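---------- Forwarded message ----------

FYI, see the Mannose-1-phosphate guanylyltransferase, Phosphoglucosamine mutase record below. Original note from H. follows.
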Amino acid sequence: MRAVLMAGGSGTRLRPLTCELPKPMVPILNQPIAEHIINLLRRHQITEIIATLHYLPDVMRDYFQDGSDYGVQITYAVEEDQPLGTAGCVKNIAELLDETFLVISGDSITDFDLSAAIRFHKQKQSKATLILTRVPNPIEFGVVITDENHRISRFLEKPSTSEIFSDTVNTGTYILEPEVLDYLPSNVESDFSAYLFPLLLEKDEPMYGYIADGYWCDVGHLDAYRDAQYDALQRKVKLEFTSEQQSPGIWVGQNTYIDSTAKIQAPVIIGRNCRIGSRVQIEAGTVIGDNVTIGADADLKRPIIWNGASIGEEAHLRACVIARGTRVGRRAHVLEGAVVGSLSTIGEEAQVSPNVRVWPSKEVESGATLNINLIWGQTAHRNLFGQRGVQGLANIDITPEFAVKLGAAYGSTLKQGSSVTVSRDQRSISRMVSRSLIAGLMSVGINVQNLEATAIPVARTVVPTLSVTGGIHVRVHPDRADYILIEIFDPKGINISKSQEKKIEGAYFKEDFRRAQIHEIGNVTYLNQGIEIYSTAFEKHLNVPAIRNSGAKVVIDYVYAVSGAVLPLLLAKFGCDAVVLNASLNQSALAVPEREALLNQLGHVVEALKANFGVQVSAHGEQMILVDESGLPIRGEMLTALMIQIILTANPRGTVVVPVHASSAVEQIARRHDGRVIRTKANPTALMEACHTNPNVVLGGSGEMGFIFPQLHPGFDAMFCIAKLMEMLSLQERSLGAIRSELPRVYHKNYPVRCPWTVKGALMRHLVETNPAENLELVDGVKICNYQNDSWVLILPDASEPLVTIYANSNNKDWVDETLREYRTRVQEFVELDKGMDFLN
């Protein structure tokens, strides 16, 4: 059997280690990852190997040559012009694959029993067999579900946190029949997981998943790289060592000298031709390459040191990576998680702080303390974007230097000379961050139209009107007064897609920024007609005479936010009798108890003035809580149902879009009006996209997120919602209290349960496997339905916290209470059981 070794990866998340090496050539235990894979193939009698190369191909060809020194025969196929993807590069060599063949990734460490997997493939008469494994946190991998016969029934490539429905993942190792390559186009970039396997599933070709025992680690980022080294030293994975074991757990290469006063704690590996000085302390977990010199009294606690490095006397290395040929000076400190690129110099008594990265051939001067990456920027985070944009602690995570770098990363993904809008709330911290973002955008040749302080619905409306490339809005987080939230819009005003987020993250992590020449630096203009543009669109989509003639009295609490500077101007144009509360701008965000006190006050004012209704506007003009004529608040699921009732009454047979966890009152109301309900993932971007892409949508959103009127703009808009309510109540001649009394009685409760990140995937898989497939909905989380009585329970993983939320919904209150108790207990027991298994392991 032949094997295709995919070795073209550039390993951008492993930089600076991969600046001069392709990812498969990065060493584990002093041997390239690809060498460990070749050894594995040879152990299973697979000796004909075709290596597909793209990034720095000569490095691998020069190292392995024809493979004879490693007991195999290696042929190379180089993608010269552009990468063809995982499947495209295999299609490119289809003429060499005339019988069953194996495809294996060159950038993972594993000791899977490939022979057993091949036997499984032949026994099942499979056309494509994916070798799978179970991992604690599957968010970075392709999730796969198989049926009881191991036939693949579903998979999802790199799910978001809430999409996890199994912890069984694709390892990038496949056993294929040559005819499956006929489904692939020639000389076109294509991917196994994104293109070929879904197509085979659609064509009902026999495709199976073999769940392998053993060790597997995708060396995709620096933390995984260090973990793979430590696991290999502890013999958690079966790898071949080039050094001899001189004593239990201590491997030492030929011609290495170790001073008799040095203290070494197993397990440790030391390469060939090394010199270990007197009184050196080497702690368990340390990996030392060939031709390395360690000076006297150096203290090494689990560093990974590549070939040819020189470590000075009394140097301190702590769980860091020192690349090829680097010199670490006397008494220098390189701390946890730091990575120093090849041929760099760390001066005497210098310190490289935790998680800092130094690019190749750089110099840190003696005595310097390096707290940021040597090029620019601070500690690299694995993901920039969360559930609804970039967020973090104000002036701690989201700092001016961070914002400059983010602006440059975003701008580098756009065409030079493009224009974007930048807007913010009224707070000083948001002004600081927005100005830093503007500086970053300008530096890469992007022009900025600065809207300054304005409500986010205004910002979303302006973006498509001005035909700019996108927009950025900065504000204090609606739910956390100490957090900053940065949202980036596409040209339609919708939050950017996941693929665009990944491009920005790629530019940010690689620090791959375009640098504009002086005459190409972006310009900043100040746009003063933002409210005018919004007002025009606002008025266009309202029945203004109905509002003007309604005689309604409304009390609006702006909670000291910037929407108080926008909506009163609009309502005044319609001659509305609107009583304004707390419309002045406040630099500090109100805490939840303060907002609740103002809501209580609003209820009293509405009742005293005999107003038609009251509204508390929050989240920078996106969200609201209603107060009916008797002063009672309407929020959450009640508000969702009420808004849908009002809008569908005016638009029968319309479509509404709600998140997956909204109550079934939505469907009951829609049936009254021959309406259609679309449920989406429980995140703002999914709601916006669904409202924009589906026909005849008259309303989207929910009481907790806000409401979308897609004919106006694609985002949430409490300000337009208030005006629309005034119009609808006038035309329908109803009060909020009367409409509320006619809503369906549905019991809908939720309960959050703590669940570690490493358990979420296994929990979701357990729920999928223990419930009939016909009762499951996997839009987001795992929803178990009883279609006869509109009852369901949803277990939804939280995207940003180590917990899952259980939602129960029914017309029967007792069923809801009992179901919540049952699933709360089931989740807690599963979490405890998983912890117990970890302890035993």
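H. also flagged this: DSSP finds 21 helices and 56 strands in the chain.
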